[in-house]
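Appendix B, record 7
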Amino acid sequence: MAVRALSGACADNVADRVAAQLSAALRPLSAAFAPATSDYVLTETELAGDASASRVASGPTKIARAAKRGSKPVTLHAVRVSSAQVLALASRRAVPDAAPVRANADHPAGLLLHGVSGLGIGMQDGDVLTEAAGQRASSVAAVVGVVLAARARHSSEISGRFFRAGVPYLLTVEQPYPPGS
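Structure tokens (predicted):
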């Protein structure tokens, strides 16, 4: 149990240092890119049920309204990263890369992800992160900031949205914390 507590504390410490360095290094770039539009981003209330499985959209989004007009329901896809996976990635010091991209026909503006395919979490290089913890993914610094804020509140999960080949996905990342923190 002590090893688990130390590994959790170590992961938190590493994550805090990496986030602080990334945030400081990328702060000047964050203002240079326009934030994502939320027209194609689904809200939490529009995603009924368990985030770990695909669901049918409901609620007043463009995607859901289109599904109501047509006869085919829209299937939502999801990726869930367990707290054990987060700890394993932190212990390996796995840090993927991201570059801001503009909106196009396949996705809103966001961060084009690189180095995520090999992490074993269900994401692929080329996925575009558009939202993290309810905020637009306009820059790496912005994402790091909302993740740090969620961790400071001891959020048990941090959710986000990403697009793969024009298909929206829900991302849920469980957050590990040392016991008693």
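Remarks on this record: The chain has a mean pLDDT of 74. Residues 41 and 124 are 19 Å apart (CA to CA).
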